[in-house]
Specification:
By secondary structure, the protein is of the alpha+beta class. The longest helix has 29 residues, at about 1-30.
Length: about 625
């Protein structure tokens, strides 16, 4: 028996070594740097070039390039970067054909490497399912019912604000991974990323509501992903439910129901009443079997970042979905420009596990920077190669930042020429997680108002900082915060320096107000006024009352009947009202600056030392 175990261990080690060597060979064989050059009258390049570099490659004087643009009314210098369109234009001007070739280097190898698996190494993997549809049609409730956990109660206004991924086990012991995407159009980019990693899309449509704008948007993304679609007709328990109307509307968008002779399965049910759920899961597994979803688990893990944020205790944290291979503790991986050794693997239900195979969502920490949602990750056996990849990607990021800050584009030149008439609204955007940053930024970029340019100077994760104030002051920008709040000292400094900070926790309001600001008609119905902040210095547990927070009022006044929010590291973790406010043992209506107080928060007991309790009121503004 012992001999068998020894033999088994030796085989496992031999397979691992073989796997390591194969991947290292694949990486080294595919590394290919394409240098810009002319070959038989064809200019071959892999990336944009500066005017000086392009002139050198085609053996022309830089002055000729500068003159060409000058004759077109454009002032440029040798360091201006030429995009693909301008490179093509110049090649034609100087009698050259042009061709772009992919250069696989350490910077882009994670995105472009091709690892072919032998058929015998592939095995069945769980399907990855994305849930889409119109806001409030019941997407999160559906997922909530499937995994038997209360997600809706933790979302602001019942609207999903962040991407989440969860793996469930069916009654037949089959696994399915669900990616839950927000439903509002402001999260278009997040939903598109969900489609990029998914095998099957479920489009949820309310039986009493029918096809809505975000439903159509979801259909477009699902079709773009080129994956099977299941339509879940939800809210069949509602009065006025009309599934035939839903199917007729969806059929006009090229999703003909199977029961009408089409190709798309429709499942009718009620997420709230747990009806139709078993049929939905069976349909998912049937489609997965038909599409023969397979992966090689016996190789280094590769996959995608679904979400990322900064955790107070853990630092940068990322939610990954493994798409091939197996991720293990102590693996060395590169994600974005970050090099990390996996210290812990935390599953979607918060448990620590040792390995994560294909289609598994997992949370990791130990990163040195916050990766972007949508970034690819890859495990390397050779730490030297991994470090090279991470270092090169960091350099590329820094170059891109420099180019973004001080680089030239013809659009920018055109804008500068119009400085006398062009209005510009500069914005610094801060949010609690990376996915939200990207989604809001994408929505703001779409706002089009004649004569006004919305310019996002900075878009990043975390609370509002001194650095943000400095940038806002220097550039006459407004600071926009989503689910973050500045400390009282920072807010006072902003007021002293006339820096406007606008804070939101519902994305619709943010987009609408910024658009109105660009139109010059910013007149909010309500104006939020922060009355004060108190720091939690100690915690008491009471069996009947719950958590009592002993606080010191550091700014302003805490009002018993005002609204409050709890801030942890500047991030909003709860918004509600006080259940009680006391000074010593007496109930009080208010607690003023530099005094102590004890308070309890209604329906919330997870207050911790160091949290900040912010008291605020909303005043009606007359238009």
């Amino acid at each position: 028996m012992n001999n068998k175990n020894v033999k088994s261990n030796k085989n496992a080690k031999a397979n691992t070594k073989k796997r390591n060597n194969n991947q290292n060979k694949t990486i080294k064989s595919q590394l290919k740097t394409v240098t810009a050059h002319v070959d038989n009258g064809v200019f071959i390049y892999s990336e944009p070039l500066s005017v000086g570099d392009f002139a050198e490659k085609i053996n022309k004087k830089p002055a000729e390039i500068v003159k060409y643009f000058f004759d077109k009314g454009m002032m440029i210098n040798l360091n201006v970067i030429l995009d693909e369109e301008r490179l093509g234009e110049l090649c034609l001007e100087f009698g050259l054909d042009f061709k772009k070739e992919k250069s696989i280097t350490h910077e882009n190898i994670i995105e472009d490497i091709i690892i072919k698996d032998e058929e015998k190494s592939l095995s069945k993997r769980p399907p990855i399912v994305t849930i889409m549809g119109h806001v409030d049609h019941g997407k999160t409730t559906l997922l909530d019912t499937i995994r038997n956990a209360n997600v809706v109660g933790g979302e602001h206004g019942g609207i999903t604000q962040h991407i989440g991924a969860y793996q469930v086990v069916t009654k037949d012991k089959e696994k399915i991974t669900f990616v839950d995407t927000p439903g509002h159009e402001a999260f278009t980019q997040m939903r598109a990323r969900g489609s990029a990693v998914t095998d099957i899309v479920i489009i949820v449509v309310a039986a009493d509501d029918g096809v809505m704008p975000q439903t159509i948007e979801a259909i477009d993304h699902a079709k773009a992903a080129n994956v099977p679609i299941i339509v879940f007709v939800n809210k069949m328990d509602k009065v006025g439910a009309n599934p035939d109307n839903v199917m007729a509307q969806m059929a006009t968008h090229e999703l003909p129901p199977e029961e009408w002779g089409g190709t798309v399965p429709y499942v009718k049910g009620s997420a709230k009443d747990n009806k139709g759920i078993d049929t939905l899961l069976e349909t998912i597994l049937l489609l997965a079997d038909m599409n023969e979803l397979k992966a090689n688990a016996d190789r280094f893990a590769m996959g995608t970042v679904l979400e990322s944020h900064v955790d107070k205790g853990l630092g940068p944290v990322a939610t990954l979905i493994v798409q091939s291979g197996t991720l293990k503790i102590k693996d060395t991986l590169v994600v974005g420009s970050s090099l990390a050794t996996v210290r812990e693997l935390i599953s979607a239900d918060g448990k620590k596990i040792k390995i994560a195979g294909p289609s598994t969502p997992i949370m990791i920490h130990g990163l040195d920077v916050v990766p972007f949602a949508g970034d690819k990750f890859m495990v390397f056996n050779d730490e030297k190669t991994a470090r090279q990849v991470a270092d090169q990607r960091k350099k590329l990021d820094e170059e891109n930042k420099r180019y973004k800050q001080s680089g030239f584009s013809l659009d920018k030149l055109s804008e500068k020429l119009k400085d006398g008439s062009l209005k510009q609204l500069n914005i610094i955007l801060k949010a609690d997680v990376q996915g939200t940053v990207e989604a809001i930024k994408g929505s703001l970029d779409k706002i089009s108002v004649e004569g006004v340019k919305i310019n996002i100077l900075r878009a990043s994760v975390g609370t509002i900082t001194e650095s943000d104030l400095a940038l806002a002051k220097a550039s006459e920008a407004i600071i926009v915060g989503f689910n973050v709040r500045p400390l009282a000292s920072l807010r006072k400094k902003a007021d002293d320096e006339n820096i406007e900070i606008r804070l939101y926790n519902v994305i619709y309001n943010l987009i609408d107000e910024i658009k109105n600001a660009a139109l010059g008609t910013l007149d909010p119905t309500f104006e939020e006024v922060v009355k004060g902040q108190a720091e939690v210095r100690t915690i008491f547990k009471h069996s009947a009352i719950g958590t009592i927070a002993g606080c010191f009022v550091v700014d302003g006044i805490i009002l018993r009947n005002a609204k409050i929010r709890i801030l942890r590291e500047g991030i909003i973790i709860y918004d509600g009202v006080l259940a009680s406010l006391k000074h010593v043992k007496n109930d009080v209506k208010e607690a003023r600056q530099n005094t102590e107080c004890g308070l309890t928060v209604k329906n919330y007991n997870d207050v911790k030392v160091g949290d900040v309790i912010e008291s605020y009121v909303e005043n009606m503004v007359k238009v």
